[in-house]
């Protein structure tokens, strides 16, 4: 498969990193910054270009991986060069009606990936309009399955929903990890020890949650002895509204995705 990424930043690098381990992929990246082009080429062996190719072919895939705010201009440059190539957009917020208007093509799949794609543990949501063919759906799905698990969404609003869970979710988890590392350092562990202890604890807890038939809340209460140490920690989390804040943050995240859609799916100047 010939795949060209437009934008070679954090998310594109994460997907490329997983994808280039698969045989038979011809991957190119169009990236404005020379230093990023050099490192993408050196790290992943991909072809890195400073400008868009003159034309694509109908059997190629173009992945839009620039910031949502840059997308309209990129689509307008791409439109005369597409020649029927399949477009996969990973941009948050920007909706299919705007993308198809800017690209002059309805052959588009929207994908909401996440950065653990870099280690083959990505979670991606996909959505396409009803008139996008089965072969194009399978192509987009196979790209994302090369770097993790995929889930088709029934409505375009599902992309906003999944952004607030798995798209942005790694940042929530890293925030929790950062906080636990800071706590461990305050107890007296070195940064290195704290990192190993916290990451080991996360890995163990996730694996236990995955393998256990018990609800996650029961796994939590199983750690909390009556009158013990964990109970004291969780009581503080509850008193400080940690759970409520995480839920509210996820809802704010979803609202921002809708808001970006309202702002960016209009035609700019
Ligand atoms: N970072 C994440 O965890 C996720 C990001 N996304 C989406 O992925 C897209 C990219 O996000 P990031 O990778 O985080 O941003 P980024 O800023 O790291 O990467 C964007 C890249 O596009 C390049 N660029 C800008 N204009 C260009 C142009 N005209 N031609 C070629 N390259 C151009 C920039 O130099 C930059 O390297 C966004 O639309 C975002 O909504 C989606 C899911 C998760
Ligand atoms: O923060 C953002 O807007 C992007 C979309 C999902 C994760 N990062």
Automatic annotation (TrEMBL):
Top EC class of this enzyme: oxidoreductase
Pyrroline-5-carboxylate reductase dimerisation domain span: 158-260
Subcellular location: Cytoplasm
Keywords assigned: Amino-acid biosynthesis, Cytoplasm, NADP, Oxidoreductase, Proline biosynthesis
E.C. number(s) listed in UniProt: 1.5.1.2
Chief location of this protein within or outside the cell: cytoplasm
Domain Pyrroline-5-carboxylate reductase catalytic N-terminal, chain residue ranges per copy: 2-93
Functional pathway: Amino-acid biosynthesis; L-proline biosynthesis; L-proline from L-glutamate 5-semialdehyde: step 1/1
Recorded superkingdom: Bacteria
Cross-referenced InterPro entries: 6-PGluconate_DH-like_C_sf, NAD(P)-bd_dom_sf, P5C_Rdtase_cat_N, P5CR_dimer, Pyrroline-COOH_reductase
Catalytic activity reported: L-proline + NADP(+) = (S)-1-pyrroline-5-carboxylate + NADPH + 2 H(+); L-proline + NAD(+) = (S)-1-pyrroline-5-carboxylate + NADH + 2 H(+)
NCBIfam families per the UniProt record, alphabetical: proC
Family: Belongs to the pyrroline-5-carboxylate reductase family.
Function per UniProt: Catalyzes the reduction of 1-pyrroline-5-carboxylate (PCA) to L-proline.
Protein name per its UniProtKB record: Pyrroline-5-carboxylate reductase
Species this chain originates from: Vogesella alkaliphila
């Amino acid at each position: 498969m010939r795949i060209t990424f437009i934008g070679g930043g954090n998310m594109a690098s994460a997907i490329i990193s997983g994808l280039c381990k698969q045989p038979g992929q011809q991957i190119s990246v169009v990236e404005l910054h020379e230093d990023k082009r050099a490192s993408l080429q050196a790290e992943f062996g991909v072809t890195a270009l400073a400008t868009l190719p003159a034309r694509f072919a109908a059997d190629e895939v173009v992945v839009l991986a620039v910031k949502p705010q840059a997308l309209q201009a990129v689509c307008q440059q791409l439109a005369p060069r597409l020649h029927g190539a399949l477009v996969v957009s990973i941009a948050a917020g920007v909706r299919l009606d705007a993308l198809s208007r800017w690209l002059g093509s309805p052959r588009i799949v929207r994908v909401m990936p996440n950065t653990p794609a870099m280690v083959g543990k990505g979670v991606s949501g996909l959505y396409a309009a009803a008139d996008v063919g089965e072969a194009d759906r399978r192509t987009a799905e196979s790209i994302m399955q090369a770097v993790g698990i995929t889930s088709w969404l029934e409505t375009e609003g599902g992309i906003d929903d999944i952004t607030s869970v798995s798209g942005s979710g790694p940042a929530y988890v890293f925030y929790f990890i950062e906080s636990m590392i800071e706590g461990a350092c305050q107890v007296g562990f070195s940064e290195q020890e704290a990192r190993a202890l916290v990451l080991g604890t996360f890995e163990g807890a996730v694996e236990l949650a995955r393998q256990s038939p018990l609800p996650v809340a029961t796994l939590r209460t199983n750690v909390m002895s009556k009158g013990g140490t964990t109970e004291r920690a969780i009581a503080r989390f509850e008193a400080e509204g940690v759970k409520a804040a995480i839920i509210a943050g996820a809802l704010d995240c979803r609202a921002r995705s809708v808001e970006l859609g309202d702002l960016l799916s209009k035609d700019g100047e």
